[in-house]
Model the fold of this input.
Amino acid sequence: MAARMAPDPSQDGDETRRARRGLPRLALHVSIPRFKLPWRSAGARGAGGEHVWVRRLMQLRAAPAPPDAPPDDGAPRSDEGATEPISPQRGPLLAWRPTPFAAAVGAAIVAVAFVSALTYYGAQTFTRRAANDRAANEAQSFTVQSAKLANNDAFDAYVQILRYADDPVLNDKNASTERRVAIMQQDLYLYVNKFASLSIATRSGDVLASTDPSIRTVRGDQAFVETRANLNPANSDIVITTPGQRGFVEYTTPLHEPDGAVWGILVARADPNRLWGPTLAATIDGGRNVIINNQGLFAAGVPDGLIGQPWQGSPLSNGGVRASIAGVDSICGLALIGKGTQIDKGLNVASCMPVSLIQSEQGRAMGKQGLITLAGA
Done:
């Protein structure tokens, strides 16, 4: 490497400020070695005339890649040293494109699957609505029949107290208490009797004789007040004094002297479960009837623990009511007992069909629909 001073002309032709200042400038000279290319020597060619370095380069490119890990036993690989010819067609694979026939088949499969799913969903929705409508219709039909039974049961009790009041001993104002109680007890022993107790009270409400010693007065009782006011037979709502305990229905009718004057009132009390026994015993497909009083409370047809609990239901578009009856999800129909008659006190009979029965029928129908859908697909 050698260094020398080199002038640096400026724009005006003079030497640069660096030269005028006496600062040295180094010029580097690098000696580059000369290589002699192999094809310039005769010994670089092989017997076939190709260059040795070209053949060596081809061998290096054709050599297989080293394995990731040597074999466990240390034995040489069987393909060691093998060469693979280079193919000019090697490269990235082109993206596969389906043929028109394959595309048509795929589109047909997708269309069939979509139509099948849509058909199954529509059938499921239709079946659910049809099952609910059928349950509501059955509940309404059951309710119509149950309302007739409930009306008959209520009127039977009405007729019974009128017949009991015709007894001459009960109408005798001067009869003894023992004789009155004996006659009333005989009436209660009758097979067709619907009452739990009979009592004779004055027009002021004091009890003169009763088959139930716990009844001492009937003042303020709904039916008694109504009969004393109009001197006609009457009946009450289902009276529930204590939740969880059975209530009673009261029937009253006046007692007359021989000249027709009213001197007393015959009072009969009935257990709702006994009074409406035939109604509560009626059932269709696992359904049941319950009696609801004027205040919307369970009064009969449910376990005693639910007596006095409020009836709660959600109206349905098909006219039914969705409600829970003794823990059973049900679809019910409602009907008034004695609607428009003298015994109409706002009592209702609810005829209920369990939802589980409806769902099981829907499940069987959907199982068949699924088989039909798969067969059609």
In short: Confidence is low (pLDDT under 50) at residues 1-33, 37-44, 78-83, 90-94. Residues 100-164 form the longest helix (65 residues). The first strand starts at residue 197 and ends at 202.
